[in-house]
User: Fold this.
Amino acid sequence: MSFSHFPRQRIGDFTVIAISDGYLTASFDFLSNIDATDADNIQRAAGESNPSAVHINCYVVQGGGRTVLIDSGAGGIKQWGGHLNANLRHAGVAPEAIDTVLLTHAHPDHVGGLMTSSGQRAFPNAELAVNKSELAFWQDDANLARASERAQGNFRIARGVFDAYREQLRTFGAGEVLPGVRALSLPGHTEGHTGFLVESRDAGLLVWGDIVHFPHIQIQRPEVTIAFDQDASLAAATRSRLLDSVSADGVLIAGMHLGEAGFARIRRSKGEYGLAYETDA
Assistant:
């Protein structure tokens, strides 16, 4: 799944490029607060030919002498994605050139691409930066012990990545993580789920991580949650709050499951939110 064109935006002195890792498939049975038929109808009305497909985005931020990657896709884990490395090269970005990887959170479809199929670091020169609460959650043996069998597999994947990058691992809290990039706590989906606000010369972009998995559904119906949410009610509250603020302020957004267009704005009309994809700047 190689692309000849990669959506990009200029944010002041930064260039942000959306790089596809491919797709995963999630049954509508994973969704709560919506009937599967309604979910399918919303997807089809939005033009989605494969309604249960969830696109996986990663983002490269270039500027200030740095090449930063936000999330790494699934890397082929569970037959999900796996196209990041090839698409980076098609976009003219060598994996060796990436100096920092910022994680929104540590689910498999966000950390899977950090390792090669042979078990080596995919980004050998990169520092790995992760929210300290997120790291603590996945490293806690008590959390592992009470997790479901499926979730225990997620723990093993996350811990394997953290172990591989141990010498290059940095944790952060709220605030600036790199010059021009601030971490924003967006709790609910995971313990330390984090957005990144890229700002330069009065321009801004919010990379909001997994605020939505099915954007057409969950932006129209913010109360719809997914089984992957650690705290579903908190995730829904965070989504509603964020949709309200980014629509009011006209903030440009990027999201890991936003679709191949990569960038969008949220519009509010007659009390309902809608998605407007943004063309290249």
Observations:
- The longest helix spans residues 232-249.
